[in-house]
Design goal:
The protein contains ten helices and two strands. By secondary structure, it is mostly helical. The chain has a two-stranded antiparallel ribbon. Helix 8 (about 145-155) crosses helix 9. The longest helix is centred in the last third of the chain and has 15 residues, at about 130-145. The radius of gyration is 17 Å and the shape is globular. The two termini are about 35 Å apart.
Length: about 180
């Protein structure tokens, strides 16, 4: 089977996914991973590298992306209260997202969590990149600023960015929805 990760396109899909990941043993942590991902557009590997001290009480923070080695600002103002609650009583040196054993969570572990949630939702198009694509999709829908999104994602062209976030597919489906000949 061909596996294609898609963004969560509606508020209802986002709410459903947040609910589904929250049902697992570490539901609050899982929910926070999703919130950080859909509000920053970070790759999962970068989300999991964050520490409590980097985000505690901050409205923005500079990180270096693991894949590209480039500096990037994360704007956390809209998550500040959730992050404060999530990190209270924790040491600044701790990973923001710990495994059940106390160490940093791995991308593979998050993938398994997401697969359990997507199975529950009867979806086969959710993976760790879903969060990044969801951020991009909604950023574009709200701003229509593909150039800024391209820079945020470090993509080489507008076409690559539109294809990545599923805008091309949406546009094609919308155009074909009522298209018919000879009927």
């Amino acid at each position: 089977m061909h596996y294609n990760v898609e963004p969560l396109r509606t508020s209802q899909e986002i709410d459903d996914f947040l609910w589904a990941v929250s049902q697992a043993r570490y539901g609050e942590r899982n929910r926070m991973i999703v919130l950080v991902g859909i509000n920053t557009g970070l790759r999962m590997s970068d989300i999991l590298r964050l520490t409590v001290g980097q985000v505690w009480g901050k409205e923005r923070v500079m990180i270096i992306e693991q894949k590209t080695g480039k500096k990037r600002w994360l704007f956390l103002k809209n998550l500040k209260s959730e992050l404060l609650h999530f990190t209270q009583y924790r040491a600044p040196s701790e990973p923001l997202f710990c495994s059940g054993r106390g160490g940093a969570l791995t991308v593979n572990s998050v993938y398994r969590i997401f697969q359990t949630a997507s199975d529950f939702l009867e979806r086969d198009d959710i993976g760790t990149h879903t969060l990044r694509k969801t951020f991009g999709y909604h950023y574009y829908q709200q701003t229509h600023d593909i150039a800024s999104l391209m820079m945020i994602f470090n993509h080489s062209s507008e076409q690559v960015t539109k294809r990545y976030i599923g805008i091309e597919r949406d546009n094609m489906e919308q155009q074909l929805w009522d298209f018919r000949l000879g009927v």
